[in-house]
Design goal:
Elements lengths: L5 H7 L9 E8 L12 E2 L3 H11 L3 E5 L18 H12 L4 E4 L23 H17 L4 E2 L8 H11 L6 E2 L2 E3 L6 H7 L17 H14 L4 E4 L5 H10 L4 E5 L1 H7 L1 E2 L5 E2 L1 H13 L4 E3 L2 H10 L1
Helix pairs in contact: 2-3, 4-5, 7-8
Bound molecules: the ligand NCc1[nH]cc(CCC(=O)O)c1CC(=O)O and zinc ion.
InterPro entries: ALAD, Aldolase_TIM
Organism: Streptomyces macrolidinus
EC number: 4.2.1.24
Length: about 300
Amino acid sequence: MPVHRSAVRSFLDGPGLTPTDLAMVFLMREDDDTKPRPMPTLTMREVPGAVQALAALGVKSVKIFAGSRVRDARASQGLSPTGLMARAIGAAKKAAPDVLVMTETCVCSHNDSGECWLADERGEMDLEETTEVLAAQAVMQADVGADIVGPAAMMPGSVRAVREALDAAGHKAVGIMPHLIFESSLYEGYRASMGATPRSGARVFQINPGRPEQAVHVAREMVDEGADMILTEPALHTVDTLVHLKDKIPVPLVPFSVSGEYLRLTDRRDDGGRDVKGLIEAYTVLKRAGATRVITYAALEIARELRAS
Ligand SMILES: NCc1[nH]cc(CCC(=O)O)c1CC(=O)O
Ligand SMILES: [Zn+2]
């Protein structure tokens, strides 16, 4: 085969990775919060410019994570329509209405324990209360403009509760992309950046990496409860599950390339930026494996790199 002839090589070239394949992660912090964090974060002031820059480069979706400075046992600030999450969603939709806004729907960045659940008076997991709060968070996020909400507690029943609450509030068109999360050490940069390190040291509903069948079971339950699509994380450590699920479960699959993947697979450059070539290769694997989109902290840097090359 004459692959040394460039016209033949480019004739055979695959589609490769494009900016549209990517969704950008925003980890929000308040404008006056200057505490150093392991992961890149974004202030409210920076949101409009950031979504417009992404849109100009062809990145058409963002996923917003935002915690609360004031924490309590009930994660109450996560429900506030003037809280950081609400303001970030509003600012992004206002600056670029065509850019899709996804959220995280969880309590770990709003309570004082860092757990993805709320406790009752005895300190035990309160499934009912947590589910109610997650549903109320989702409605608030939809009220201020979120297109897709992201229940991330992995709590049984939470996706159904979110769907019912959204429907009852008139948000039938708002999508649900629950997180299907494997236990991993790759979340530390995120947890430290967001103040979401679980006091107990564990996230009991997350998938044990040695039990891949559990992931299929949970994914099925999520779809039965009303998930429109499923986020898988960490992205690269769950590629096998992505391929399995693609055959078994008829919903779009969206790997989330988490903090540890960003920190470990990029290199600091002399100009202060990061070399993202390793991530481009990794996300090409994910695309080949069947990912509908890839959620990543490097979407802007990758879009720039793709345009330059
Ligand atoms: N609330 C669950 C959640 N939301 C975001 C991440 C990790 C994201 C990342 O590392 O980039 C996690 C996992 C966890 O804390 O156990
Ligand atoms: Zn959580």
